[in-house]
Amino acid sequence: MTLIQQFEQWIRPLKTRMRLMIARAVVEAVQDDKAGQLADLKDLAELVEVFQAYGFTSRAKAGAEAVVVHLNGNPDNPLILAVGDRRYRIKGLAEGEVAIYSDEDDGGTAKHRVHLKAGRKIEVHGSTVYVKADSVLLGDDLTAKKLATEDFVNVVYKLHMHATAALGPPVPPTPIPCPTETTSKTKGA
Questions:
Q1: H or E element: which one contains 79?
Q2: Nearest to 48 by CA among 36, 57, 61, 60
Q3: Does domain 3-84 have CATH number 2.40.50.230?
Q4: Contact between 30 and 63 (Cβ < 8 Å)
Q5: Based on the number of CB atoms within 10 Å of its own CB, is 132 exposed (0-12), middle (13-18) or buried (19 or more)?
Q6: In sequence order, what are the residues at sequence separation of 6 or more whose Cβ sits closer than 8 angstroms to the Cβ of residue 120?
Q7: SS3 call for 20
């Protein structure tokens, strides 16, 4: 046996472990009822932990793809580092743009996303958007306009119309300006 053959024989287990360190897999199901999310992967008997970045979470659908690392090259110690689903990914973003989306976004007219667009613009799309807060401020710290829940109710109430047979067709509503409660903050306060 030559020196090269001996060397190859010595490093064969290391090469095998390195090849096993990273793999692709298909998600079959996800358990999302515990502190750590677990995924059932095709061709793998055990549930695998899904590592997620702090402050962000998602639950993949069956058929999504996962990147699995086997810690120390040990196939008995898997961890999912990333899950993606090219079936639902938004396409055509401009360089530097970011989007959060779900499987309900078809990329066309049915949009379900938050899109941080170039030019410091943010688009929010959904059939209904809820904002749950004690107050909503529009503008910066010095010129913010506060909108309270009652302000939204008053605007909607004043803009609604009733069609009655006796009066004929409804009259178009008169636009009502948004409340303009300006904060009295001064710089450095």
A1: strand 78-84
A2: 36
A3: yes
A4: no
A5: exposed
A6: none
A7: helix
pLDDT in tens, 86-102: 999 999 999 999 999 99
- One-letter amino acid of 122: I
Residues in Cβ contact with 157 at an 8 Å cutoff, skipping those fewer than 6 apart? none
Judged by DSSP in three states, 142 sits in: coil
Report how far apart, in Å, the C-alpha atoms of 123 and of each of 96, 106, 120, 178 are: 15, 16, 10, 21
Q: CB of 92 within 8 A of CB of 80?
A: no
Gap between the Cα atoms of 189 and 184, Å rounded:
10
Q: What is the DSSP letter of 150?
A: H
> In which element (H, E) is residue 116 found?
strand 113-117
In degrees rounded to 5, what are phi and psi of residue 79?
A: -150, 130
List pLDDT tens digits, range 78-87. 999 999 999 9
Domains in the chain: boundaries = 3-84, 88-128, 136-182
pTM of the model: 0.66
